Amino acid sequence: MPEEFDFSELRKYLQGQMDMGEEDLLLDEPWTLTRKKPAVPAGAPRPANPMPQMRPANPAPFPQHSAPANPAPIPQQSPFPSNPAPFANQAQPAFQQSAFGAPAPSAPAPRPAPAPKLDAGLTIAPRTVKKTTAAYELADSIGAFYDALKTDALYARAANVVRYEGPEHPRLLILLAAPKPGEAGSNFFQSPTGEMLVRLFGSLGYAPETLGVTYFYKDAPRALSPILLASLRRMLTKELSFIAPEIMITFSEPLFYDVFSKGKNFNDLAGTALDFNGTKTVSLVDAYAMTTDKQLKWLTWKVHIPRSGLFTAAK
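RE: above sequence
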């Protein structure tokens, strides 16, 4: 009988593609083939046992052994010997005895050393940890903030510190990991990725002049220790105090962990309404990958954006 496959999942998938239309056709294959067990029709004879037991037609009888007429008596033995041998080693006493028969006294326990006495006039000063304030934390304007970043150890060797580009208080702030080669905040919205995001949020009612963009890494992404990542988060918090957006949107899973640390899961929280130090935040998939991946666009538009509940008022 030929093998049969269950194509129910494929049928549902193709029906969903037909409902989406030709323009939204996805070229992925999420289904898996499931083998079906062949059904045995009623009344069909069952197959013979493939391993029949081989038994001879006339098996030979087992030989019968008869008991002797007068068996010899078994000698009776006592379980206890008449003359038991003395034990070779006598049990040792539980404690040692002295020459006069009395138990030997145990050794006295050592006394603890006396605690050192401190002079009444001697005082121990409490240990203090000196916390330094970075220069950018003392900035009173966004321009002074970027100037102070150039003197920080993280950006001391950077050729250029990329600045925020957009209106004074944007409705949406796009936070990217780092600028691509040849890309800066001033020309991001003219790039293919920027134009795609303008069309995406324009469909939600956000005009292009209400969008802003900034970067978590002001020069190039790099592997940093948790202490240095905490410094970058403090820089972002200070920068947001000047930009003051209504909603901040982060793009890509690695940037999500840079902003919110490893204590949260991107797959569980993507598209949900989050909070970053008082700023409403939504995390989405990589915007650059979304530019050429139609499936990521579908996931963002149909799943992640409705999940947050922050964009309904803009429609």
